[in-house]
Amino acid sequence: MTYAAIARVRVVFGTVGYTLGVTTHRKGSPMSERKINGKKSAQAEAKGHETSLPIPGRPGEATPAAIDNPKADIAALNNLERHLFAHNYASACIGSFSTTIDPVKSLGDSAEVLSILDQENHELLCSTSTGDMLQRLSKHHELLTPVQQHQVRILQRDRNKLIGIPASDQAAFTRLTAESYDVWRRAKAADDWASFEPYLDRIVISTRTLAEFKRPGADAYDVWLDEFEHGASTAFYDEFFAQVKDVVVPLLADVIACGRQQSRQPISGKYDAQRQWALARDLMELEGLDKEAMLLLETEHPFTDSPSTNYGIIASHVYEDDVLSNVFSMLHEGGHALYETNVDPMYNQTSLKGGTSSGMHEAQSRFFENYVGRNESFAPHLLEVLRKHFPGPTGRLTARQLFLVINRVEPSLIRTEADELTYPLHILIRYEIERLLMSGEATASDIPRLWADRYKSYLGIRVPNNAQGALQDVHWAQGLFGYFPTYAFGSAIGAQLCAAMVRQGIDFDGLLADGNLTPIKEWLRINIWQHGRTKDSEQIIQDACGEPFSATYFTDYLVDKYSAIYGL
Amino acid sequence: MTYAAIARVRVVFGTVGYTLGVTTHRKGSPMSERKINGKKSAQAEAKGHETSLPIPGRPGEATPAAIDNPKADIAALNNLERHLFAHNYASACIGSFSTTIDPVKSLGDSAEVLSILDQENHELLCSTSTGDMLQRLSKHHELLTPVQQHQVRILQRDRNKLIGIPASDQAAFTRLTAESYDVWRRAKAADDWASFEPYLDRIVISTRTLAEFKRPGADAYDVWLDEFEHGASTAFYDEFFAQVKDVVVPLLADVIACGRQQSRQPISGKYDAQRQWALARDLMELEGLDKEAMLLLETEHPFTDSPSTNYGIIASHVYEDDVLSNVFSMLHEGGHALYETNVDPMYNQTSLKGGTSSGMHEAQSRFFENYVGRNESFAPHLLEVLRKHFPGPTGRLTARQLFLVINRVEPSLIRTEADELTYPLHILIRYEIERLLMSGEATASDIPRLWADRYKSYLGIRVPNNAQGALQDVHWAQGLFGYFPTYAFGSAIGAQLCAAMVRQGIDFDGLLADGNLTPIKEWLRINIWQHGRTKDSEQIIQDACGEPFSATYFTDYLVDKYSAIYGL
Question: Which of A15, A276, B45, B148 is 20 to 30 Å from the Cα of B135, by its Cα?
Answer without folding.
Answer: B45
